[in-house]
Amino acid sequence: MILDGAQEPDLRSVDAASATILAYTCRSPDKLTENEDTVAVIPYGPAAAVLVVADGAGGLPAGKRASLTAVQTLAAALASSLAETALLRTAILNGIEAANEAVIALGNGSATTMTVITVEGLLVRSYQVGDSEALLVGQKGKIKLQTAVHSPTGFAVEAGFLDQRAALHHEERHLVSNFLGSVDMRIDVGAAAELRPRDTIVVASDGLTDNLHLDEIVELVRKGPMPAVMDAAIAKAARRMAERRPGKPSKPDDLSLILFRKPYRLRS
Questions:
Q1: Structural domain total, the chain
Q2: What's the CATH code of the domain at 152?
Q3: How confident is the model at residue 164 (pLDDT cuts 50, 70, 90)?
Q4: Which of 7, 35, 116, 158 could form a disulfide with 127 if both were Cys (CB 3.0 to 4.6 A apart)?
């Protein structure tokens, strides 16, 4: 399932990896041009799923074409790898490399971020290119997995020189140093994390993460039924985009969000 939400908001659910997954995307409320985000949920056999958010680089030509090309190329590569019974990790790495080559081949200077989360049985792993983000959040609010943002502020947070809240308001927050569409593209592969009962996976573009503080996202997603969580996250991000208030982030942008939570009785 691939959502491009080019003009209209798109919300769908899909069953994969023994779970129901919600995916949403919509364009920024302050623009008439198309949504540059592309979202995908790709089953990989009966027990695994691949969650993808790609954000076409704003200000560069054909950002939407870049994100959609990257996701379609990754999906096709995964289908080929599944037919060849390749390991999921190998399939993802090869697929992202193929997606990078496909965006470069567009020849128009476009670029896109790509954040990928794989769920294989009870194991979760991240593959990161750029500044879209992913989290694995426990029911009590513990963050068990968090991708690093490829930007000057992201690296400062990772090194301990800047906290998450300060980074969200930093003037260099929106500078991104790693894209598909570049010969220098690199893939950060995260350590595997284990899913526990009521854990929630969040994969989002910066339409969410530039408008809500990390603790706000965690509090929203850690409990309650997923449809209600999705509705609340979309509504809160939309309110922040629409109004500027002291101490609160506000940046109108395309918004994409995937939520994944396995049933209470987990099975590998």
A1: 1
A2: 3.60.40.10
A3: low
A4: 116
Q: Is the dihedral of CA 10, 230, 68, 45 positive or negative?
A: negative
Domain span at 154: 2-261
- Is the pTM higher than 0.70? The answer reads yes
Give the CA-trace dihedral at 243, 141, 228, 251, to 10 degrees.
20
Angle, CA of 150, 155 and 157, to the nearest 5°: 120
State how far the Cα of 115 lies from the Cα of 227, in Å rounded to an integer. 22
The verdict on residue 267 lying in a domain is no
pLDDT at 236 over 90: yes
The bridge status of strand 123-129 relative to strand 114-120 is antiparallel
With contact defined as beta carbons under 8 Å apart, do 179 and 130 qualify?
Answer: yes
Sequence-distant (6+) residues with CB within 8 A of 83 are: none
Which residues 6+ apart lie within 8 Å of 185 measured at CB? 100, 129, 178, 179
Q: How far apart are CA 17 and CA 76, in angstroms?
A: 19
Cβ atoms of 217 and 135 closer than 8 Å: yes
For residue 37, being part of any structural domain is answered with yes
Domain for residue 30, yes or no? Answer: yes
- For the segment 129-142, the average pLDDT, to the nearest whole number, is 94
268 domain residue, yes or no: no
- Full 3-state SS string of 69-108: HHHHHHHHHHHHHHHCCCCHHHHHHHHHHHHHHHHHHCCC
Strands 133-137 and 200-204: antiparallel
Nearest to 154 by CA among 169, 139, 167: 167
